[in-house]
Design a protein that fits this description.
Layout: H1 2-40, H2 48-60, H3 65-89, H4 93-110, H5 114-130, H6 138-158, H7 163-191, H8 194-205, H9 207-227, H10 235-265, H11 274-295, H12 301-311, H13 321-340, H14 345-350, H15 355-364
Helix pairs in contact: 1-2, 1-6, 2-3, 2-6, 3-4, 3-5, 3-6, 4-5, 7-8, 7-9, 7-10, 7-11, 8-10, 9-10, 10-13, 11-12, 11-13, 12-13
């Protein structure tokens, strides 16, 4: 029980650590937006300046810069349109519905993007419900929202989250998932246990979410480096994560096929040999080495050497159909991970035992 609570607290702290930069961006940006709107623009109660910062920073953490700019424009336009419509139509539930419909209609005619249209509508709601009776002009509110949006983007640039931490954390999740699937499959082969293989297959089917989250995190990290001068020096290290992204995704997909064929092979007269389980464990360890070396900012040479050793090993003989397919998938995973270390596809493929040699072994074994 104590161990479970400790793990839960650790996960909470890790999650909190990842949002600390956004908390700082929101807090500092909101204060600056208020000061700018009051001191430079002369607005007494610039409510929409800090609101715009909060919205911009929150969306900016997971979206591309173009969408953040679109959101800033949407907030500003929604505030302006909402103010004008409220001044003409008035407030109240039915009038609010009309204000929202008209604001979103205008937004849809200007830009069909869902984020833009929804943000114009939500900003119009704020105008209609929060400040319908204040004697503040629509242009002033638009200026406040635009000020907050610009400062929000500046906060993301000047108080950025670590792109390497974001990318590294999500890649670790992918490689941990891959390693776990390969370890479980190796254990199933050694014990001849179809239930264990079925569990490994179920685990493998859940890995695609981790790969998709890593792809999103990588785009986010690239965006941070693009707009933040403070992170430009990390471009070379992030490039290694970019190199690994597609090959690691392919390795996960091949691992799922491998587990399916292993499950089938365990029900055949010629089950997978122990040598296949050994190779799976070595690739699993290489995946973890890749994770550690990329996280440390090093060229993943140790992972590459471990994978090359597996690729060059003599292949098992007299395999059944499904075991042969599983072996082919293992070869594909080795090539995928070699590419993730920075090796080109041709060189990685050439490191494998040639297929004709494999065929000769099977024929003469």
């Amino acid at each position: 029980m104590r161990g479970w609570l400790s793990d839960r607290v650790k996960r909470r702290l890790d999650t909190f650590g990842s949002i600390v930069p956004s908390i700082a961006q929101c807090a500092v940006g909101s204060a600056l937006a208020w000061i700018v709107a009051v001191q430079l623009l002369g607005h007494a109660r610039p409510l929409f300046a800090p609101i715009s910062v909060m919205i911009c920073v929150g969306v900016g953490l997971g979206q591309r810069l173009r969408r953040v700019v679109e959101l800033v424009v949407g907030v500003s336009l929604g505030v302006g349109i909402g103010t004008l419509l409220v001044s003409w139509i008035g407030s109240g539930p039915w009038r609010m519905a009309l204000v929202i419909a008209l604001a979103m209609t205008i937004a849809g005619l200007l830009n069909t993007g869902e984020l833009f249209v929804s943000q114009v509508g939500s900003s119009a709601v704020l105008v209609a419900m929060l400040v319908p009776h204040q004697d503040v002009g629509g242009l002033d509110r638009m200026a406040d929202a635009l000020t907050g949006g610009v400062i929000g983007i500046a906060a993301v640039a000047l108080l950025p989250a670590s792109p390497l931490t974001i990318a590294g954390k999500h890649l670790s999740g992918v490689l941990d998932a891959l390693s776990t699937v390969l370890e479980q499959t190796a254990e199933a082969i050694e014990k001849g246990d179809m239930d264990l293989a079925a569990e490994a297959l179920e685990c493998g089917r859940r890995t695609q979410t981790a790969a998709e989250e890593f792809a999103t995190a990588l785009e986010n990290s690239k965006e941070i480096i693009r707009i933040s001068p403070l992170r430009w020096h990390q471009r070379a290290r992030l490039a290694r994560y970019e190199t690994a992204a597609v090959p690691v995704d392919l390795a996960l997909r091949n691992a799922r096929v491998l587990v399916r064929r292993t499950l089938a092979a365990l029900g055949e007269p010629s089950p997978p040999p122990a040598a296949l389980a050994e190779s799976l464990r070595e690739i699993s360890e290489a995946a973890l080495l890749l994770q550690l070396e990329l996280g440390a900012g090093r060229e993943p040479m140790l992972a590459r050497q471990a994978l090359l050793a597996v690729a060059a090993r003599e292949r098992p003989k007299n395999l059944g159909f499904s075991a042969n397919v599983a072996l082919a998938q293992l070869r594909s995973i080795a090539v995928d991970l070699l590419q993730a270390t920075g090796m080109d596809h041709g060189t990685a493929s050439a490191a494998l035992t040639p297929l004709n040699e494999l065929s000769d072994e099977s024929m003469h074994g």
